[in-house]
Amino acid sequence: MESREGKSISDLEEEFFHKFRDFMTGITKIDELGIAGSKLLSGFQQALVHSCTHGLCNHISKAKEILNELEGLLGDVTNAIQTTDGNLLALSDLDFDVELNEPVTYNDLEEKDALSRSQSPDVTTTKKKKSIDVPHLAMVMAFIYSMVKQDYLMQEKIVSALDVKMPSEELESYCQMWSLRPFINDEIVHQAWEHIH
User: Fold this and answer.
1) Number of domains in the chain
2) What is the C-alpha to C-alpha distance for residues 11 and 33, in angstroms, rounded to an integer?
């Protein structure tokens, strides 16, 4: 594997951007799986039990696979930033450890973004291709990963709790939770997509 020390800043940014795009593609796959899972859960609610149960278990397995890929990409980005020795802005002052029990809000992201911008000078004054704000996008990735993981854990609990003898009110509340996706902040996800042209 090529040493990161030998790469230019633009090469590092390009490498990061590809990982960011792959990460967001994974988010799209998770979203599509979630929609399919919601339909399967509705099928379970309508007593189409066996095939829907099998489909939901398959959904959880695929979602876990994609989640592992997202975690790997986030780890790659974090490691890349930490090993560039100042070629990119260091992330040592930024906190990537988002608690899974704490809902992430857009204001949290804005506050951390403002903090990172105030700690680093703005050097993008030329008309050349604008540099990628690597620390900001890495922080966005960390927040999105945290939200998606919480959503996955909720889905996993729902699937493991499913039972044909379950009261209809409880099943209805599971269906609503699944479709509402309470842990996902769409504003942060939309903001992330705006960085991919």
Assistant:
1) 1
2) 33
